[in-house]
What does this fold into?
Amino acid sequence: MARIGRYEIIQPIGDGSSSEVFLAFDPFFERHVALKRFHPEHLRDTEAARAQRQQLQMEAALAGRLQHPHIVQIFDVTIGEDDAYLAMEYVPGGTLQNFCRVDNLLPVDRVVEILFKCSRALEYAWRQGVTHRDIKPANILLTTDDAADVKVSDFGSALFQDYERTVVSGIGSPAYMSPEQVLEEPLNHQTDIYSLGVVMYQLLTGRLPFTASNHVSLAHRISQGDAPPPSSQRPDVPQALDDIVMRAMHRSRDIRYAGWQEFSHDLAQFARTQKLTARHTLPSETQRFQLMRAMPFFQRFDDVHIWEALHLSSWREVSAGSLVMREGDAGSYFALLASGHASICSHGLPLYRLVVGECFGEMSLFGAGHGRSADVIADSDCMLIEVRGQALDRASSECRMLFFRAFLDTLAHRLAAANERIIHL
It folds into this structure.
């Protein structure tokens, strides 16, 4: 079997002008990886080779630094005189490029969800001091071929806030470059916001906002022109989404979104107000993330662990009057109230009224062999977030610790409330 370093080559999966990508197996960690190997002629002592090595060194600096569910993880980088390669997380579903054609566009709600995830991932990178600088559909990978989930890849052109190095100008893909990028002005995270806006435009319409016959003309159009709104190309794009896209890719940084949080907030708000998931009874992942993010229970969780908690959970709706948990039943899960009202009752008497964001049923996870200590009854139509004990056991140690701290916070709050009631008896 052919090898590159310790990696066993299975098959080629991609080929570019400067590198080839293989599906490989890492016998040390027993996992499949995507192995990107640079062509030897691009490593020789030329100006282009030095730029190539610099980009590879940038990716080497990221190995283990960006740990996010929507960013491709870099495992290992090797840079030699005549050979250079990097091993990264294998993501099997292709790229977003497949959905940038007029005849293969995704539903509008799916586009919003994808862009929301990308915006949160790029905000996380920015908070780690990293600006991507080459956002485009080909650098957003799909975990499955139906675009169910995405991961941002290829940070070889990144800018580092805390790392002094000579910055190579002109890096990026011309059609997705921000006006400040094509004019070679100083860059910040807003250049990625602009590029992600262009990706959003293309996913919605199947077309780029600006095209030209050469790079000079394209640069002029990007820096001086105004693109037509997406709805002019695709009539079912609502005005509110037009506004988000056009603000994200505005040529003036004073008008463009100033930060990622504002951009992702508007995407989530659009998903709620437009009811894009009307064909589903449950909210989209974007809406679930926002609902969980707003709950006091998850106040100690960062974005990475919110996503992990979301993927551990299941969501369901119950109608008013339903018995959600029964006293005496074995308890294999706990729940949080995502919407509506419910009451904790014992022998038919109400003990406590739950409000949105509160958890219940968690004590059964700690009392081996003991059943539920009370009934939980839905006072109105409710939506529940349920996490089973087995799922919590599979969570990362950091995520489990955050759940247990949240349980302790909940217990402390309930004890304080009980003491207050006793004092006033």
